[in-house]
Task: inverse folding
């Protein structure tokens, strides 16, 4: 299969480009069905005329149906989507890209999903699915699993296949709450993940950006102390890697403070710490949950982030420890490699 793909790349490269376009059309319809042409055109950033042409061809092949409510994928279409995922992986040279990025970042393992989540939200969904499957294989009896908040982690919980994999599993938020969106709060994500895995869970009912006086008072509460002890003894951590400017805004820092951080070269934030691209700490804000020291001590760590815009943040966070797994997308991977040339 690999040899055939390489031959096709050299002789008829336009066929492979068309294959990827049609695969993306089928996949987008499948995740959003029923969906109309105009909405599909918007999601894929393609002209409606081009969408109409491709959709009609796929319909003639029996891969989708067009009804009054919108387009649906047929059973044959679903089979094609599953079969093509591996082909697209080889077509884009993802295995070679993973090896290259692993060397560039000097980390233990790298997993890359095709596409760029900056341009296509389905890539975020793919990262969530890939992370959840990888995580599920690592879980053992009596494990304590911590997970942070954010939209990427929400996709991990959403895409986790339902089913118990081990006994006495406990899921805990690794950080306090941050932001106003309940669906992307670490508590909500931990609870959903636990439900999918038929596991127990604990909640940490504290905002992440709390002042030191309030924090000292809260730490005396028994329930809070219990969760923080669990966090300190996690076996597995799954966390999102955030950009410094975005996370500073979510933590409601003043614009003056944000400008100062960026001016000093901050590109990434993790666990309340802000770092430059080389992993040097710029500033620490008082936060609740896993500390940087705890991050270093956690046996198994999985960092997840994608999109070209997060390339510098990924480089920065990856420098904090070598024995970790980075799960990202093609857009971020190629950008990182260009930056590190």
Result:
């Amino acid at each position: 299969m690999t040899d055939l793909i390489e031959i096709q790349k050299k002789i008829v490269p336009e066929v492979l480009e068309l294959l990827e376009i049609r695969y993306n059309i089928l996949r987008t319809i499948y995740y959003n069905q029923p969906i109309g042409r105009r909405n599909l055109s918007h999601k894929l950033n393609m002209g409606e005329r081009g969408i109409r042409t491709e959709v009609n061809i796929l319909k003639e092949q029996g891969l989708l149906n067009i009804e009054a409510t919108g387009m649906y994928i047929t059973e044959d279409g679903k089979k094609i989507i599953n079969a093509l995922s591996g082909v697209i992986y080889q077509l884009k040279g993802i295995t070679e890209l993973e090896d290259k990025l692993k060397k560039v970042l000097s980390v233990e393992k790298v997993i890359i999903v095709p596409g760029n989540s900056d341009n296509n939200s389905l890539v975020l969904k793919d990262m969530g699915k890939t992370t959840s499957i990888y995580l599920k294989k690592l879980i053992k009896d009596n494990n304590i699993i911590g997970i942070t908040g954010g939209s990427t982690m929400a996709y991990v919980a959403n895409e986790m296949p339902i089913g118990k994999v081990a006994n006495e599993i406990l899921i805990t938020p690794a950080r306090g709450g941050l932001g106003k969106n309940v669906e992307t709060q670490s508590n909500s994500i931990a609870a959903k993940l636990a439900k999918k895995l038929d596991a127990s869970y604990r909640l940490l009912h504290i905002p992440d950006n709390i002042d030191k006086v309030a924090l000292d008072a809260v730490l005396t509460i028994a329930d809070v102390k219990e969760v923080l002890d669990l966090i300190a003894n996690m076996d597995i951590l799954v966390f999102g890697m955030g950009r410094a400017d975005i996370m500073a805004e979510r933590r409601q820092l003043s614009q003056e403070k944000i400008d100062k951080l960026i001016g000093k070269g901050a590109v990434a934030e993790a666990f309340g710490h802000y770092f430059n691209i080389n992993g040097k700490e710029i500033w620490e804000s008082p936060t609740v949950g896993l500390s940087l020291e705890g991050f270093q001590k956690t046996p198994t760590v999985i960092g997840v982030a994608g999109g070209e815009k997060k390339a510098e943040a990924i480089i920065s966070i990856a420098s904090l420890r070598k024995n970790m797994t980075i799960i990202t997308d093609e857009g971020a991977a190629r950008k990182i490699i260009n930056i590190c040339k």
